[in-house]
Amino acid sequence: MARYIGAVCRQCRREGAKLYLKGDKCYGDKCAFSRRGYAPGQHGQGQARKKTSEYGIQLREKQKARRIYGVLEGQFRTYFEKADRQKGITGENLLVLLERRLDNVVFRLGFASSRTQARQLIRHGHFLVNGHRVDIPSFLVKPGNVIQIKEASKEAPVFKEIIEGLATKSVPAWLEISAQDVSGKVARYPAREEIDIPVQEHFIVELYSR
After folding, report:
1. What do you get for the CA distance between the two ends of the chain, in Å?
2. How far apart are alpha carbons 160 and 153 in whole angstroms?
3. What is the C-alpha separation between 141 and 147, in angstroms, rounded?
């Protein structure tokens, strides 16, 4: 499947917002967006002075959401169409669907340092959902689902440091974590105020409603 393989920091600079695509690394002094908060490219600094059209604002919000969750254009539209068919506010429904992706939940639980790493670990078969191996990052979790690191994977170097830090890890209120069992549980679906991403979803709805 096609994926963006360039420098992820360029995506933050292009959107004019810190998207935390590298997880904890984005909080450090080496964050490219903190040092160069203008758009990438030869004319990047000049772009900040240009007036953005209504369509441009809507497009940028959609692109931010896509990049944060690592979703392709076709996938994103499918999520939107599903959200539009559900009861409630379409924009909020969309964000809840994206939050329910297994790669996002693994990241939120602290089992991976970023959504990108979470996708890779899931594809390699390191996680169980309700005791069954799931290697599809887009798998949508439901309340009651239990996510665990496979027993055989716990000794892998990539997980040792993660497991050691679980005792002090804080997770969103809609998730529960057990450091002792190295597992997480989906207690309920998230509310909009619990989804801490820099996106104004009503612009996305306006974009797809054009």
Report:
1. 29
2. 9
3. 9
* CATH assignment, 1-51: 1.10.1050.10
Output 7-14 pairs: Cβ under 8 A, ≥24 positions apart: 7/32, 8/116, 9/33, 10/40, 11/67, 13/37, 13/38, 13/39, 13/40, 13/44, 14/39, 14/40, 14/63
Rounded to whole angstroms, the Cα distance separating 204 from 193 reads: 17
Q: For the whole model, what pTM was predicted?
A: 0.80
For CATH 3.10.290.10, the residue range(s) in the chain are 101-186
129 backbone dihedrals φ, ψ, rounded to 5°: -120, 115
pLDDT tens profile 149-176: 999 999 999 998 888 888 888 999 999 9
101-186 belongs to which homologous superfamily?
Answer: RNA-binding S4 domain (3.10.290.10)
User: CA-to-CA distance for 203 and 197, rounded, in angstroms?
Assistant: 14
Chain centroid to CA 202: how far? 18
User: pLDDT tens across 64-106, in order?
Assistant: 999 999 999 999 999 999 999 999 999 999 999 999 999 999 9
Number of residues in the chain: 210
User: Model confidence at 1, in pLDDT bands (50, 70, 90)?
Assistant: very low
